[in-house]
Design brief:
20% helix; 486 residues
């Protein structure tokens, strides 16, 4: 039994903890690297792979993206019970071997892309929860291809497939479709994840927060690859046996029967998988056996939960060549920042954009660094760039990068004397995405609001710093200036 409760205010939260993922795969080389990358973006420290004998590049693609192969096994038929036994065993064995008192685990299929509410990553959402919650439910959205390019391997599928249908059937009293987040407690009863990650078993009563997280599901990608995979699943061998079983794998059978109609966008002819399921008679009123009703996903999810951490690199993504020079807000932080740095050695301007800061430097050598701008002195990927330079100026950069930690750590490792960091988003209780845009870029770019301590805790003991809050003529009306010195 899973009981949904409000998160108390204030919650009694856990001390720092880790989030791991366990990922089950079979023949999903086209998408698995993106799945792994999304898990890391959602705050997972590790991704463990349990593969059912894939003969394509699934394992190598997943491991190249950073996954750890925990188990590879072969079966004549798809067997969900065997798969869950192995995935639960990975969770139990790894948890027992680690020193942590608590480890959150994310159970994943290779075509699932979860995210937290309120623009948070999953890890950041878990940090806000009271200790009583050992499981988290998910709203679940089945996405369908609606364009000539249903998916590009390695990328987040959401921009390619905006149309979806929410699946909300009675897996718990709160109608959460899945319960993919489960917490290992060394002193608590073990939780066993159930079939499809829909439910869980535990000797203790399980509590989940009323606010669910979200999963976007993309089973239909490239038509040829999707068709080949489903045909391999349902074609019969010489003995007349298919890899899947009609009575157990109704969701995959519905996809197989609907392939032609899905890629023809004949939504009224798509088979509703629940009509093939034994539980169909228990649903009141029963859903129609045929047809799906699709909506853009951002019509189904409230606006405050729509910003998501997507990992697309902003290197080369800003289209400065298409715009005349303009200023990002007023000059206050340019003036104050360069007054702190000028005359104290070479200044590297990380993410210089139009290099507007150059005009405020009178004594030092100025070097503009950017991943996209023709106004830069050097084109670099700030996620990879490390230098040795006297001073660094970084204004309005971290807010637009999911990999902000890597960029900040590189900057901290690079300056030898002074650094100025400026962020323009309002302070938040939890670091989260508060908006996204694509107005000047070729990829979706976030606006990330920070818990300021998430920034300052990355400063080591050699760095002295002060923080100044300023009201300025910028997008959110505020800027925070971090003055750093070694």
């Amino acid at each position: 039994m899973i009981t949904a409760l409000d998160n108390p205010s204030p919650p009694l939260t856990l001390p720092p903890f880790r989030l791991f993922a366990v990922l089950g795969t079979w023949m999903e080389a086209d998408v698995v690297a993106a799945t792994v990358r999304n898990a890391f973006t959602q705050g997972c420290s590790r991704v463990y792979l349990v593969d059912n004998g894939s003969t394509d590049d699934t394992v190598s693609a997943a491991c190249a993206a950073g996954a750890i192969l925990a188990h590879s096994y072969t079966t004549e038929r798809y067997d969900e019970n065997v798969r869950l036994d192995l995935m639960n065993k990975v969770v139990a064995d790894v948890s027992a071997s680690e020193p942590d008192e608590h480890i959150w685990w994310l159970f994943l299929d290779a075509d699932e892309f979860p995210h937290g509410p309120w623009g948070m990553s999953l890890h950041e959402y878990l940090e806000t929860l009271d200790q009583q919650f050992r499981i988290v439910g998910f709203r679940f959205f089945d996405h369908y291809p609606s364009a000539d390019t249903p998916y590009v391997a390695g990328q987040h599928p959401l921009p390619f497939q905006p149309l979806c249908e929410e699946l909300a059937y009675p897996m718990c009293p709160a109608n959460h479709r899945k319960h993919s987040l489960q917490r290992f407690d060394r002193q608590g009863s073990p939780i066993r994840c159930g079939r499809g990650f829909h439910s869980a078993e535990c000797a203790d009563e399980l509590f989940e927060p009323l606010q669910p997280a979200f999963i976007h599901h993309f089973p239909f990608r490239d038509e040829h690859l999707t068709r080949s995979r489903l045909e391999a699943l349902w074609s019969r061998n010489e003995g007349g046996t298919a890899r899947a079983e009609e009575s157990h794998d109704t969701h995959m059978l519905a996809r197989f029967r609907s392939l032609q109609d899905v890629y023809a966008a004949a939504w009224d002819r798509v088979v509703n998988f629940i009509s093939l399921d034994p539980m169909y008679d228990q649903i009141v009123p029963p859903p129609p056996a045929m047809g799906v009703t699709l909506h853009p996903w951002n019509e189904l999810i409230p606006s405050e939960h729509q910003p998501t951490f997507q990992w697309g690199s902003t290197f080369g993504a800003w289209q400065y060549q298409s715009f005349e020079k303009f200023n990002y807000g007023d000059d206050t932080t340019y003036l104050k920042g360069m007054a702190y740095l000028d005359g104290r050695g070479t200044i590297e301007d990380w993410g210089c954009g139009f290099a507007h800061a150059r005009q405020f430097v009178t004594s030092s050598r100025y070097v503009g660094l950017d991943g996209s701008s023709q106004h830069a002195d050097q084109i670099v990927d700030l996620r990879e760039h490390v230098s040795k330079v006297d001073c660094i100026f970084m204004r309005h950069v971290l807010e637009h990068n999911v990999d902000w930690r890597r960029i900040l750590d590189n900057a901290l490792a690079s300056f030898t004397h002074r650094m100025v960091l400026v962020v323009f988003t309002p302070e938040a209780e939890t670091t989260r995405v508060i908006a996204t845009s694509i107005g000047m870029t070729s990829v979706v770019v976030p606006d990330i609001a920070f818990r300021l301590s998430d920034i300052t805790e990355r400063f080591d003991e050699t760095i002295r710093h002060t923080v100044e809050s300023l009201t300025t003529d910028t997008q959110y009306g505020v800027e925070y200036m971090f003055y750093l010195e070694r």
